Amino acid sequence: MNFCKKNLKRFITCAFLPISLALFGLAHAQDVNRKAAPTSVTGADNKIRNIDGVAAVVNTGYITRKEIDDRVAALQKQGVKAPDAAEFRKAVLERLIIEKIQMQNAEQEGIKVTNKDLDRIIGDIAAKNKLSYAEFRSKVNASGTSFERYKESLREDVLLTRYREREVDARIKISDAEIDNFIAERARVISGKGAAPRSAAPGAGGGPEEIDVAQIFIPVDPGAGVGTQAEAKKKAEALLVAASGDVDFMQLGEIAAKENPKIKFQELGYRTPDRLPQIFYEAVRNLGSGQTAKVVLKSPAGFHVLKVLDRRTMIAGGAPQQEAPPLEVASSTPQAITIIQTNSRHILLRLRSGLTDQEAERRLQGFRDQIRTKTADFGELAKKFSEDGSAAAGGELGWMSPGDLVPEFEQAMNRLQIGEVSNPVKSEFGWHLIQVTDRRDGQLTVEKQRQFARANIRERKYEQAFQDWIRELRDSATVKILNAEDGATSTR
């Protein structure tokens, strides 16, 4: 499990203790069931079926129904909503299968996390939260479990993370041409020329961009009743939850279509924006390769779950080009770029179950009023209320360059004068209250530009490489689903 997989600031340190304890229920559920289930199953199918609680056999191991129960409970405790309990349970089982396969492979390849490694990691987690090792141990014990059990769960999470990173990183290839293109485009944006809209943007080869979109489609007759519409939407939302995890998108569609022949899944192939349905393009225009649309799309024909499989540029002659040559602005000798850097701080209220947009806006507006009337200090409010790793530092994010922050945040920040406090701003991470504390002229050296470009290109490519790897793992494994629908305590 990667605790810092995504954050507002790409280089910001996560608040490890709250996150690790919040996710502990999930790790603990895995830990309990890994210990409860034997590592291998032998004998005929009828023997396996007689083992009480077995939901699926995965290679030489198996997953219990209690393991599914525990994972579902842990996810619900974290605020994950399940529109349809049965579909959600199937999606959870699929995640557990993928994790089981990864754990088996990692153990076979001799990947280990030593006690010394584990103590160092826990020490880092404690230090980032300004706790000693002993204080951190007490926090874990206070959460309702033993520290040793927590350590073993953490060990398995770290082992899986190392295995995934090793396998996926080896698949990601980044060329110098791609880095040059990225730097050139960023220089164009910083200089104020901006990038052309996607619908009209010619690629470096003179041709337009093409987007490869896949969809899982649940058809609904326009005249269908409210109940039928609601049922189809529930199914689509459950598939969206599953698609946001480690499950291969096309494989997920295949499974859904087998269960319900009315459900269709397809890869639309590479299309220019004008050849995509307008509602599809609006939903995916800002998505990178491997990203899934954040919401279910409703059309007159039914409900759609969309994913961008790839983006590419066409050469003027018509041949596709994955790695375009450097843009004209990058053909000259690379130089350091002068940029305006902004120092800001923020208060973040994360998106979660039980907190409506209206309530988040109301709370942040109240903080803003207190700051403007000087009855409260921004930094003190951030320390007390912000749900971000920067809270301990009063919400300070440090010096940011253009492109370092998510667009919604950066656009609002750029409109502020020094000392000014924004209105509440919503991003994919939650609701923010932003204050700019200073600005300065800075320079990005050529080496820094290339490091930044490589990191961003890798981030774009990682998701697709990860999904390809997951698909290969799943296809190469022997999996037999036995009884996933019932809970562990259900009557057989």
Helix-strand sequence: HHHEEHHHHHHEHHEHEEEEHHEHEEHE
The share of residues in extended strands comes to 15-25%
Task: Give me the count of strands.
Answer: 12
- Tally the helices: what do you get? 16
The CATH topology name of the largest domain reads Triger factor/SurA peptide-binding fold
Broad shape: globular
Largest beta sheet, briefly?
5 strands, antiparallel
Helix content: 40-55%
Label the CATH architecture of the largest domain.
Answer: Orthogonal Bundle
Report mean pLDDT, rounded to a whole number: 77
Structural class: alpha+beta
Low-confidence stretches: 1-50, 193-206, 321-333
Radius of gyration using CA atoms only: 25 Å
CATH class label of the largest domain = Mainly Alpha
Q: Please report the distance between the alpha carbons of the first and last residues.
A: 34 Å
Describe this structure in words.
30% of the residues are buried. Strand 1 (54-58) and strand 2 form a beta hairpin. This protein has three domains: 16-170, Triger factor/SurA peptide-binding fold; 197-330, Roll (Chitinase A, domain 3); 337-444, Chitinase A, domain 3 (Roll). The model is unreliable at 1-50, 193-206 and 321-333 (pLDDT under 50). It contains 16 helices and twelve strands. The protein has helices at 16-22, 24-36, 45-50, 65-77, 85-108, 115-128, 133-142, 147-169, 176-190, 226-243, 249-259, 278-284, 357-372, 378-385, 407-414, 446-476; strands at 54-58, 61-64, 206-219, 264-271, 297-299, 302-315, 320-321, 337-350, 396-400, 425-427, 430-444, 479-481. The chain has 492 residues and is α+β, with helices and mostly antiparallel strands. 46% of the residues lie in helices and 18% in strands.
